[in-house]
Design brief:
Number of helices: 12
Number of strands: 13
Structural class: alpha+beta
Shape: globular
Order of helices and strands: HHHHHHEHEHHEEHEHHEEEEEEEE
Strand order of the largest sheet: 1-2-11-8-13-6-5-3-4
Distance between the termini: 12 Å
Helix content: 25-40%
Radius of gyration: 24 Å
Length: about 450
């Protein structure tokens, strides 16, 4: 897979202590005094980011990049935290001000905090400080994108916590060890026979290419992923807690058919699993809330998970994989009706999902227009304004003319979604899926 990154533990950080009395805060250029006005321009954020990098280079950033050394002192943490907090507040406000510069500045300060806290954690043996440093490294990745230095910093912290016996984490003994794919707990939608998608058993990759890929025809490859290691391993809560428990991820809460209702909250995988996904022996979930780790590049951040899946041969025969995403969530998570510009193999690993599809010919009935009556999130014109399972027939009367297809994916199933094919997805149980764009 093209996103695979060979993971190695970086050499020990050779933190210099000769500069312990240097006060980082006093060396900050004037623009780093946090402004009191409620908004800062894109140009201002970019200026702050550039000056921060220049300052960090003077303080030894180049040695971080080249030799994993770092000279920033803990006295600077307070200033970095203030910068990061201001940038985060503006990002959370969801305004257009700040933009890329705001994200870059936030990611840069989080990475600096990760290395600074990591230095002190290793020196003092403080596992809580190491976890704080790990969270900072993860936030740098989440907001700023996956970059080598933040990945290596996180890898180093995880390795140190393992060496000290603080990892792997364990699930509480009183909890069940399933994400709950028990079919008895699932409420399935009514599906008309004439609207079901073709199912194929033991279809060869070459026949897939000829019969379905070249004709842009959806198909379910039954049991195609059932032989992957993930099929058994990923259904266990303990696997996620032990493998990536202390790592932080962006979790969408209170998901519904409208994207505007989402609230994204950073939390560790341990918190996510034990608060939302884990079930007791009776199959009851930990919380009656909807939570979703959606379309996440988890394989770039946690490459060891690639060992548990296999890039489908169908992708390789039809041009090769562009990107893989992971989707982990409770029952009730919804991806609104939309289309992608890639061909897509949606691989169901754990649990059950309901998918409704419409061909591109149905687009005139699906209300994808942007404008005053629709959210700005639909500006790309690839998201429908219609709640597929509960359409407002008065507001969207043409939707009644749309002809679609329905399918319920079981563990091990793989669904081919041709490019520009509209699809709506709802989890019927706690669920883990992987999709490959190709």
């Amino acid at each position: 897979h093209s996103s695979h990154r060979h993971t190695c533990v970086p050499p020990s950080w050779a933190f210099a202590i000769a500069h312990r009395r240097r006060i980082f805060a006093t060396r900050l250029p004037r623009p780093f005094h946090i402004p009191t006005k409620s908004r800062m321009s894109e140009e201002h954020w970019l200026q702050l980011h550039e000056e921060l990098l220049q300052l960090l280079q003077a303080e030894g950033l180049q040695e971080v990049l080249d030799q994993k050394e770092y000279h920033l002192l803990e006295e600077g943490d307070e200033v970095l935290c203030a910068i990061a907090e201001r940038a985060w507040s503006q990002l959370q406000a969801g305004t257009s001000e700040g933009g890329v510069g705001c994200k870059r500045l936030y990611a840069a300060t989080q990475l600096c905090l990760a290395i600074s806290k990591g230095k002190r954690a290793e020196a003092s043996g403080d596992q809580e400080l190491a976890r704080e440093a790990l969270r900072c490294a993860d936030m740098a990745q989440i907001v700023g994108g996956t970059v080598d230095l933040s990945c290596e910093t996180a890898d180093r912290l995880v390795h140190w916590l393992q060496e000290q016996g603080h990892l792997p984490l364990k699930c509480a003994a009183s909890d069940g060890d399933r994400l709950n794919d028990d079919i008895r707990q699932v409420s399935f939608p009514d599906i008309k026979l004439e609207s079901t998608i073709i199912r194929e058993f033991d279809l060869s990759p070459e026949d897939f290419k000829t019969k379905y890929f070249k004709t842009d025809t959806p198909v379910v490859l039954k049991g195609r992923a059932a032989g992957w290691p993930a099929y058994e391993k990923w259904a266990k809560a303990s696997f996620w807690v032990q493998t990536v428990g202390p790592r932080t991820f962006p979790i969408e809460l209170d998901n519904s058919a409208t994207a505007e209702s989402l609230v994204e909250e950073p939390m560790t995988m341990q918190e996510f699993v034990q608060s939302y996904l884990q079930t007791d022996d009776a199959g009851r979930s930990s919380a009656n809330k909807v939570a979703y780790l959606a379309q996440h590049d988890i394989f770039d951040r946690i490459p060891v998970l690639l060992d548990d899946v296999a890039v489908p041969e169908e992708c390789l025969r039809c041009g090769g994989v562009e990107k893989a995403n992971c989707w982990i969530g409770t029952a009730g998570t919804i991806t609104p009706l939309h289309f992608d510009t890639y061909d897509n193999l949606l691989c169901q690993i754990v649990g059950y999902k309901y998918v409704k599809l419409f061909s591109r010919e149905q687009t005139p009935y699906l209300y994808c227009e942007s404008g005053k009556d629709f959210s700005s999130t639909r500006a790309q014109r690839n998201i429908s304004a219609v709640d597929v399972e509960n359409p407002d027939v008065a507001k969207f009367p043409e939707m009644a003319k749309a002809v679609g297809y329905d399918v319920v994916l079981s563990p091990g199933d793989v669904l081919f979604i041709p490019q520009r094919y509209w699809h709506y997805v709802r989890s019927l149980s706690p669920s883990v899926s992987v999709n490959f764009w190709f």
